[in-house]
Amino acid sequence: MNLDDLPIRDDLRGLSPYGAPQIDVPVRLNTNENPYGPSASLVTDLAEAVRHGAAELNRYPDRDALALRADLADYLGHGLTAERVWAANGSNEVIQQILQAFGGPGRCAMGFEPSYSMHSIIAGGTSTEWIPALREEDFGIDPDKAVAAIAEHRPDVVFLTSPNNPTGTALDPAVIARIAEAAPGMVVVDEAYFEFARTGTPSALTLLPGNPRLIVTRTMSKAFAMAGTRLGYLAAHPAVVEALLLVRLPYHLSTLTQTAARVALTHREELLGTVDMLRDERDATVAWLRDLGLKVADSDANFVLFGTFADRHAVWAELLERGVLIREVGPPGWLRVSIGTAEEMAAFRAVLEGIL
Ligand code: PMP
User: Fold this and answer.
1) Nearest atom (ligand 1) to Cα of 220
2) 98 C-alpha vs ligand 1 centroid, how far in Å?
3) Which of 165, 233, 339 to mutate to test the pocket of ligand 1 (most atoms within 8 A of CB)?
4) For residues 3, 92, 157 and 153, what is the CA-based torsion angle, rounded to 10 degrees?
5) How far apart are CA 173 and CA 254, in angstroms?
């Protein structure tokens, strides 16, 4: 028997699972992880906390993760409290819960592409119709066109990604505010890469007080260097959190996950200390690629979209052949490189130069 023989949902037939290749090569620059591993002191504290918590693993975890949510609220600032913060297994699960509560059969969600393709994939998984709107040539969003698209389709959920993946483009909060004003339903600002934004870029968190249908999502997978922990979170009006409690699975966040995230938050200065280095490395990468005569999107994230290549797959494959894994993603002809350590970026430059 194979997959096609199963009575699977018609809308899932013929689909491929999402996921970048996980290939063991010397230089992995394809999933926007933070290249710096945890320090010895974080590993020690984590091991101690897990040892302590292990004695109670016969019990379910704190179902509402209240202590973790209070810690996340403290990290976010902006006067947020635990009742305005929610957490799940990666921001992907947060997004899934949002669509379970506010999307679903007979409802639709809109996003501005090119953007993070999991938004539309999770819409599919929750039987929410997906309506793609387009970004401009510079990968920004034209607020007039966005408002017109929203008026036409009346989406139940609007996704705005800032800084955007895979382009790196940050949105002006004034644009987000206009869209939030025009949207009849929920507006989700996916700020997975916010910590990498150029200094002075305001967060959409500043818009929460006047916008009760606004949700800002974040993750510990990127700047926090905790991708393996699987911890994503959001800030929103307390009523939004109440709505998500209706769809979350009981005990969705394991004791071990909650423990690891809380320990990481106590080490946040050290973890976020890598952000400045990664920003500098990013800006240097943008400048270097432009010096080569390539097109490069301005980036406020920990990756850079560059191109354009007549045969981008050939360039990607040649880099891989020489031990450097990047991502074949974005509009036709473009490639995306995540920012690694100085040594990894030197390897990327040497190999790409050899290819070009
Ligand atoms: N949002 C965006 C824009 C992303 O790029 C990613 C990861 N690639 C995520 C959300 C999901 O991250 P996680 O589930 O690890 O929190």
Assistant:
1) 16
2) 14
3) 165
4) -50
5) 35
Q: What pLDDT shows up at residue 268?
A: 94
Q: Give the integer Cα–Cα distance in Å for 348 and 133.
A: 33
Q: Report the DSSP beta bridge partners of residue 217.
A: 190, 234
- Distance in Å, CA 311 to ligand 1 centroid: 27
Determine which residue's CA is closest to atom 12 belonging to ligand 1. 91
CB contact burial 240-278 (16+ within 10 A = b; e otherwise): bbebbeeebeeeebebbbbbbbbbbbebeeebeebbeeb
Calculate the alpha carbon distances from 340 to 40, 124, 300 in Å. 20, 32, 15
| pLDDT above 90: residue 20 | no
List, chain by chain if needed, residues with CB within 6 Å of any ligand 1 atom. 32, 90-92, 116, 161, 165, 190, 192, 219, 221, 227, 232
Contact predicate 184/129, CB 8 Å: no
- In CATH, the number for domain 40-268 is 3.40.640.10
CA 1–ligand 1 middle distance (angstroms): 34
Q: Which CATH superfamily is domain 3-30+273-355 in?
A: Aspartate Aminotransferase, domain 1 (3.90.1150.10)
The atom of ligand 1 lying closest to the CA of 31 is: 8
**12-20 — which CB contacts under 8 Å span 24+ positions?**
15/124, 18/117, 18/118, 18/121, 20/327
Residue whose CA is at the smallest distance from ligand 1 atom 14: 90
Average pLDDT of the segment spanning 248-265 = 97
Domain residue ranges in the chain: 3-30+273-355, 40-268
223 C-alpha vs ligand 1 centroid, how far in Å? 11
- What is the average pLDDT across 285-305? 98
User: What are 209's two structure tokens?
Assistant: 């007080």
| Whole-number percent of the chain with pLDDT over 90 | 96
Token pair recorded at residue 304 = 């850079």
